[in-house]
Target: Uridylate kinase
Amino acid sequence: MNTLNQPYHRVLLKLSGESLAASGKHGIDAHRLSAYVQDIKEAHERGIEIAIVIGGGNIFRGVTGTYTGIDRYSGDQMGMLATVINSLALCSALRHAGVHADVLTAVRMEPVGEFYSKWKADSLLRQGHVVILSCGTGNPYFTTDTGAALRGIEIEADAMLKGTRVDGIYTADPEKDPTATKFDTISYDEIYERKLKVMDLTASTLCRENALPIVVFDMDKPGNLQAVLRGEAIGTIVR
Ligand code: UDP
Model:
């Protein structure tokens, strides 16, 4: 494995649950799953240590549940279980592609996955496994973006790579405002001052206070993950 000339040694890759679903649909789309596996496998083969936090929005979100009479606490627990479903799918597909991968859970549920600790995750990463950290933070009232920020800090990742369907952070929503322009780099404070919807405030505050850089990029374009890992200027870097 060649780890020379790479800006990142260890990364936390955040994928949204919705990105696993086909456009406008729920559940897991086989083509999207296999495209992600291909990208992650190539990154892994370059010797980069990869931890992944995946959301559950393609299956269930706690806030949405409250509209149908499910209390927020229970709904959030359902949402965390949704992240486990996605994590198991990704882990299984990675293993099928020949990549050593494990799911750790922030809520105890052996034998579905081992209970998360920083040391367990660190040990697996050092052994060359891709580690999928499920259940977000393990607590209701949080998001998987916050889970990703927290885990990224804990495992001392060099950056949090936030794979989205947009190619970076814009001055306004590019789908609604044709004059919106993209930032190459932006500070955490500017995101806050401009009220840009990059991630929730808890997540961005954690990143800011612990100096964890965030790279927002379009994960749906094949090869983009490799480009980010090579340090190419695609997407937006938040420092
Ligand atoms: N969730 C939670 N605590 C966490 C992370 C997630 O309760 O630490 C629940 C919450 O209900 C959330 C759902 O899991 O809506 C799915 O996560 P998220 O909405 O972040 O998924 P994404 O939007 O990334 O697909």
